[in-house]
Amino acid sequence: MKVVAETLSVARSNLIGRLKGKTEPRRRYHMAQDAELVPRITTLVTARPTYGYRRITAILNRQLRSEGLAPCNHKRVYRTMQAHNLLLARKYTKRPEHVHDGKVIVMRSNLRWCSDGFEFTCWNGDIIRGAFIIDAHDREIIAWRAVVNAGISGSDIRDIMLEAVERRFGTYRAPAVVEMLTDNGSPYIAKDTQIFARQLGLKSCFTPVRSPQSNGMSEAFVKTLKRDYVQVTPLPDAQTVLGLIGGWIKDYNDNHPHSGLKMRSSREFIAAQNATA
């Protein structure tokens, strides 16, 4: 019996109990209080069908705290969602080999901003292209632009640079140098854009050629934008979609939980930083 227990890495008492029929079979997980959570979780999953159990937990706890109730453990949410078939389906895809040059994330806000573009097609064939600036620490989308059936120009990039500086600092120039990490697209490397960036107090930094993953913060936002908003929203035409993008960005900043921010949204994280400053 000892040899068998050591081989199976179980206690001898467990094996003896099984042989004598004294070990009770494990029952299915159940807590009476879960019945109160099911309607809440179902509503959240319906509203945000691309969220996994951890982000659903973050949103659920945000609601519970606002009502003065105790927060819920993510394991409990997982088991509840599993019991009611609310979990996301797993995707078994081979992860590509990425070589990351440098670390994008920084220790505080307004040290490094990242910028990139996005593109998607409406149901009527209109093509929406846009660009944005995101802070590499607090993950807030500071400024953005979108155009229809055209490319993002250097003028568009300069506009969002100016808007970002005005929103973060309330002036036309950053009080300290802010790194601006982008790819090597023509709107970013244009001479006028470089001169304008220096006038604003921004230091242009570029990712290595053919290495978009080096701007991983921006790539992650584009993926989230398409997964959580574009793919689950009707996109009949460009006019309709242009009216939606602002709401998507606001929802992302206000509500989207980030694992790197301890499942807080960008605005929650910024508010907590300001409260302790």
TrEMBL record:
InterPro entries: HTH-like_dom, Integrase_cat-core, RNaseH-like_sf, RNaseH_sf, Transpos_IS3. One of its GO terms (biological process) is DNA integration. Gene3D superfamilies: Ribonuclease H-like superfamily/Ribonuclease H. It comes from the Bacteria. Residues 92-273 form the Integrase catalytic domain. NCBIfam families: transpos_IS3. PANTHER family: BLR2054 PROTEIN, LOW CALCIUM RESPONSE LOCUS PROTEIN T. This is Transposase InsO and inactivated derivatives. It comes from Paracoccus tibetensis.
